[in-house]
Amino acid sequence: MELFDCHCHTERSDCAEDVTLEWYAEIARNSSQVFAITDHSAHICYPQDAKWGFWTNEAREIFERHKDYAEAEIDSYIAEVRSVQTGGMLLGIELDIFLDGTPVCNEERLGDFDILLGAAHTFPALQQEADAQQVEAELKLMIRRLVAWEIDVLAHPFRPLRLKNYAISDDLIEWVVDVAGEHDIALEINSHNVCRDEDICMAKLAYEQGVALAAGTDAHRKVEFGEFSYHYEVADAVGVAAPELYWGPTQAAMQAAK
Ligand SMILES: [Zn+2]
Ligand SMILES: [Zn+2]
After folding, report:
1. What is the block-wise mean pLDDT of the chain (258 residues), using blocks of 10 residues?
2. Which helix (H) or strand (E) element contains residue 31?
3. Under a CB-based contact definition with an 8 Å cutoff, are residues 34 and 214 in contact?
4. How many other β-carbons are positioned within 10 Å of the β-carbon of residue 182?
5. Which of 126, 144, 185, 233 is the one with CA 20 to 30 A from 110?
6. Where does residue 156 rank: exposed (0-12), middle (13-18), buried (19+ CB within 10 A)?
């Protein structure tokens, strides 16, 4: 049985390579794979000449200047995915937020998605490469802000720290699992850019505490889609069957999405 893939990108994400919405639609029409299209809200909302503007010091300024553009682009993203949605395809988004909790997405649209992934891709302490304590404190604040928007899944919780070579303590992993339990959200095991030790530690704790885990390929390329070997490896390390370990939308939610 295939797992539910909570995390797939299309050409709307600037870092995507050869994946298109039409390619996913074809899969949805011809297979039983269940998956969510989750493009980066920061790529959708930022203008063509500043697609990576959210990752810069001018993030807020650019965002404020292009609010109308962002609203129109979010609407067009929703309409485009809905127009081809069929089979096991869900409409989601990988939501970015500012440190003060402002979502990089029209707030009024957040309820329109079948699934909301939250990601703390970047925040001031990380951009400034501040000391580890400050980075961890801001990451926790970012996660608190994301759960306040009722995300369903916290995407790759440790990747931002890992990419900048910050240590990820067991205490931080425990904190993340506790918060996910408190707010009933799933934690993503992401195979696009692997944090193996942290993922296994998080998965064991989550399983013990009854916190949900979600499998995400974070597909940016066709070859990544449907490739769950890493998720099976993590399930093996936990000592449970993968379909039992990973969360998926219920049939009722799938019907309601249509
Ligand atoms: Zn991400
Ligand atoms: Zn992603």
Report:
1. 92 94 97 96 97 96 97 98 96 98 98 97 96 97 98 97 96 98 98 96 98 97 96 98 89 65
2. none
3. no
4. 10
5. 126
6. buried
Instruction: Kindly give, in sequence order, each residue whose CB lies less than 8 Å from that of residue 208, ignoring residues fewer than 6 positions away.
Output: none
The token pair at 210 is: 């009854």
Task: Give the distance (Å) from ligand 1 centre to CA of residue 160.
Answer: 9
| C-alpha 156, offset from chain centre | 7
Residues 163-184: pLDDT tens digits?
999 999 999 999 999 999 999 9
Closest of 206, 183, 199, 210 to residue 232, by C-alpha: 199
The ligand that comes nearest to the alpha carbon of residue 154 is 1
- Give dist(CA 186, CA 38) in Å, integer: 15
Which ligand places an atom closest to the C-alpha of 38?
Answer: 2
Give CA separation, 221 vs 10, 19, 92, 140, in Å.
Answer: 9, 6, 18, 30
The Cβ-side half-sphere exposure at 112, using a 13 Å CA radius, reads 13
pTM: 0.96
Are 156 and 122 within 8 A, CB to CB? no
CA of 94 relative to ligand 2 center, distance in Å: 6
The CATH number given to 5-257 is 3.20.20.140
All residues with CB under 5 Å from ion ligand 2: 94, 218
